[in-house]
Amino acid sequence: MTADPIQDLLPEEHLQGPSEPAGEPNEQVGEVRQGDAYDLMAELEPESVDLLITSPPYWGLRTYGLDHNTEILGVWKAEGNNQEDIPSYEWYRKNGGVLGLEPLPEWFISHLVEIFQRGAHALTPTGSMWINIGDTYFARWSSLRQNGRQGLGDNPRERRRTPMGGYRQEKQLLMIPARFAIAMQNHRWILRNDLIWHKPNVPPRPEKDRLRLAHEHFYHFVKRPKEGRPKYYYDMAHVEKDARDVVTVNVQSGTNGHSATFPPSLITPRILSSCPPGGLVLDPFAGTGTALAVALEHGRRAIGFELSPSYSVAARRKIGLEEVEPVDSAGVVEHTDAS
Q1: How far is it, in rounded angstroms, from Cα 328 to Cα 125?
Q2: Which of 13, 220, 245, 253 is at 20 to 30 A from 87, Cα to Cα?
Q3: Contact by Cβ (8 Å): 44, 119
Q4: pLDDT in tens, 71-85
């Protein structure tokens, strides 16, 4: 038998399965569950997920139409806590908090790590996580929009005051992606790549004293084994040409009211290289379901979690599930007007 040249080039810590033609149809139907990823992660079967790929909410930019408690920091202090202390996600949510709208970036990073830790048991020993996360500039008085980019667009916005202190200073780029990646490393995750997503078509900005942000980070994490080197599935035959850690992909317009959707050409190489054929892909912040649709198109199974009822419906439509009526946060069906 002729040796596989791709296989021969791979280090032993990479487990590679046979490559399959892109676009192979998947007979299995995907699934979208409406609810909080924190809860739904815990319900996953152990070692059932081959790839977790997602883009969580940015910190402090959008409400995504969700109600949130703008006075939650005061509630936390009223209970005798310091603002630098970080409440659990369960306390935060119980008191009206929404992921991405934490009063401090430290809270957001901690809650994000907490949610991913809830799903660690579900990832197979040879599985991967690809997490796309964007950064934010600090402003004592910032704008929260239902959708759209900070400082751009004509959609309604609300103003909120964020306490200054430490690295939280006016005009400061907060380095949220890096802080998140280090926090994940401190929870025993191995960071294999910091993929830079270069976005050549970013819109103009009004600022005259800095360059435009034209990239985001896409982190590849694998599990840290109890002993030895990490071993995980990875098929180099399906990454971009030259296998470099900077890729150029245009930003795409949002769909179904969602302002930030994955470009398929960005995530297709991640799915094909990090999930074996027939494996299960999970997007715990599924939005309108682009990652699920790409996974199914290429012969993988797919499951998505989405907090927003309207986005959950859009995701179900995208992957061809029977249309269902959205439910509110209390589980009550929100009937739509048929007229």
Answers
A1: 36
A2: 220
A3: yes
A4: 999 999 999 999 989
